[in-house]
Amino acid sequence: MTRPVFLLSLPRAGSTLLQRLLLMTGRCATLGEPSLLLRFLGEGPAMCRKATYWESLIETSTADIRKKWPGFDAEYRKGVHDLMQRVYEGLADGKEFFVDKTPRYSLIPDEIYATFPDAKFVVLWRHPVAVASSISSTFRKGSWCPDEFGIDLYEGQQRLQQFCKRHKENIYQIRYEDLVTEPEQELAKLGAFLGIDDLADVLGRELVTSTGGTLGDPTGVKRYTKISPSGRDGWKKEISNWYRRAWAREYVSGARAVALKELGYDLPDDVAKGPLGLGQGLIDWIAARHRISRRLRRPTWLPRFARKFRKENGYEVSFR
């Protein structure tokens, strides 16, 4: 039977790199970012879904079902487990492990853990400000936009840390910074956890160029053919003006700074202080306010989808 391996992280944390390394062992299968569990698990405001029905009505109905049938949650989880187990086995093509790497699973780690008690769980950390920088450079062509991914940087980060504290005996945590600096040592420890004793042997070969599917890292698979520490600290140069540094200082402050310290992260002096960059900082500030305001008032995807739907079906559609 194929055993699921859930690789949990924020987006742009290096999970595709680790996914590629696991794929090269010959014992693991994977497919981009499967994402299916986001449809089956998770409730509440953080899991808001775009739909033509009222999502709140589904949650109300689910609450009614729970009151009527106390065994609902256990039976539902069993149904999700059995369905996804068949999916993973179908995708694995006889391989021992199937690696499900979906960044937004950071919002539902406890639900996944309860549904798959026999699975392996690997949590990959990276400095969240580095994640914010990589998000901006990858998805917004360098325009500073971490607040568009606040659900990951705030809620996802917090939920993953709480998850790790609750289940630390049964999961494996690894930092991206350590992985690219001491890959042989880190892969040996991860291999011992997974039962893949020769995992570190993949370091002598070129990385596979694809994990299959459409979703995943659009840049790293092209840029790196072998594991490299060259991108570890490059994010620091991107924190280059007053607005970006102010965002970083606010993020790494208070209770969050204490939590990040537990992972070995703080805000380096060369990031917290530096040239003012007045003009570029002002551009970043204006662009960020405009982008967030526009997305709240008029999401860019909605008019395009509505026009296409009307053209193909002949009637209007609305989202609730």
Label the CATH architecture of the largest domain.
3-Layer(aba) Sandwich
Total domain units? 2
Total beta strand runs:
5
Biggest sheet: strand arrangement? 2-3-1-4-5
The helix/strand series, from N terminus to C terminus, equals EHEHHHEHEHHEHHHHHHHH
**CATH hierarchy, class of the largest domain:** Alpha Beta
* Poorly predicted ranges: none
Principal-axis shape equals: globular
Indicate the percent of residues in helices.
Answer: 40-55%
**Biggest sheet: strands, sense, closure?**
5 strands, parallel
Which structural traits does this protein have?
five-stranded parallel sheet, 5 strands, alpha/beta, Rossmann fold, 320 residues
Secondary-structure blueprint:
Elements: E1 3-8, H1 15-23, E2 28-30, H2 37-40, H3 55-68, H4 72-92, E3 97-101, H5 109-115, E4 120-125, H6 128-139, H7 150-166, E5 171-175, H8 176-181, H9 183-194, H10 220-223, H11 242-251, H12 254-262, H13 269-272, H14 278-297, H15 301-313
Parallel strand pairs: 1-3, 1-4, 2-3, 4-5
Keywords: Transferase
Protein name: Sulfotransferase
GO molecular function, one term: transferase activity
Architecture overview:
This protein is of the alpha/beta class and 320 residues long. The protein folds into 2 domains: 3-228, 3-Layer(aba) Sandwich (Rossmann fold); 239-312, no CATH class. Helix content is 51%, strand content 8%. It contains 15 helices and 5 strands. The protein has a 5-stranded parallel beta sheet, with helices on both faces. The radius of gyration is 21 Å and the shape is globular. The model has no long low-confidence stretch (mean pLDDT 90). GO terms for molecular function: transferase activity. Pfam families: Sulfotransfer_3.
